[in-house]
């Protein structure tokens, strides 16, 4: 009987030790950013009363994760209220900004009436928000779950090692006129993450 009690105690100790470790990893159940919905704004400032037609620019959450079989990639995911492989008129620009080792990076994707464009990751040059270099990467657009995922090669970020902390995770969705429209390429509608419900860092697992 005593041995059984000891075994149960050891199991409980292992469970309580493992759970906090797995909680460090991001995912749809444990996203790094949980945004408020129905908060798309005209020019990023003016609240829009009816937002049904802007659901594809309304951010729900963003998270990072890794997979043991592909430790060379950092998966960056962005979930919207609605997502389509083509837009009707405006161009949608989806971003997730990340910071590691005092360097800022951006995962970006454009979707417009022509369809889904290539997936890109860039590194900011300085505080002026200029991009030093763009790298094309793999990615997926899952219409069923309304999730965009970038497969960011860690080498693009300088190979952050296990235990490195990714900070300042900021998703952004923008709607603007398309190049083909001939109209000014201004950002008409925006969903910024400054009013997110929760925002936390991510710890590199592999």
The helix fraction, in percent, is 10-25%
By DSSP (H or I, 4+ residues per run), the number of helices equals 1
Outline the biggest β-sheet. Answer: 14 strands, antiparallel
- Count the domains: 1
Description:
With 206 residues, this protein is mainly beta. It has one domain: Immunoglobulin-like (Sandwich). Helix content is 11%, strand content 45%. It has 1 helix and 14 strands. Strands 1, 2, 3, 4, 5, 6, 7, 8, 9, 10, 11, 12, 13 and 14 form a 14-stranded antiparallel beta sheet that branches. A hairpin with a 6-residue loop joins β8 and β9. The longest helix is centred in the first third of the chain and has 22 residues. It is globular. The relative contact order is 0.22.
For this entry, give a set of tags:
single chain, 206 residues, mainly beta, 14-stranded antiparallel beta sheet, disordered N terminus
What is the structure about, briefly put?
The chain is mainly beta and 206 residues long. The protein is built from one helix and 14 strands.
């Amino acid at each position: 009987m005593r041995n059984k009690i000891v075994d149960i105690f050891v199991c409980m100790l292992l469970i309580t030790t493992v759970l906090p470790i797995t909680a460090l990893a991001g995912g749809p159940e444990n996203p790094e950013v949980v945004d408020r919905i129905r908060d798309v704004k005209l020019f990023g400032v003016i609240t829009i009363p009816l937002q049904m037609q802007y659901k594809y620019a309304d951010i729900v959450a963003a998270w990072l994760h890794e997979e043991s079989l592909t430790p060379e990639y950092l998966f960056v995911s962005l979930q919207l209220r609605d997502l389509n492989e083509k837009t009707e008129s405006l161009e949608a620009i989806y971003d997730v900004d990340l910071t590691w080792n005092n360097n800022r990076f951006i995962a970006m994707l454009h979707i417009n009436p022509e369809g889904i464009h290539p997936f890109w990751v860039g590194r900011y040059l300085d505080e002026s928000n200029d991009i030093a270099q763009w790298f094309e990467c793999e990615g997926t657009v899952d219409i069923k779950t309304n999730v965009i995922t970038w497969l960011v090669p860690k080498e693009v970020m300088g190979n952050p090692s296990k235990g490195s902390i990714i900070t300042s995770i900021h998703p952004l969705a923008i709607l603007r006129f398309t190049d083909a429209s001939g109209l000014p390429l201004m950002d008409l509608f925006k969903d910024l993450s400054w009013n997110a419900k929760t925002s936390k860092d991510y710890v590199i697992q592999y």
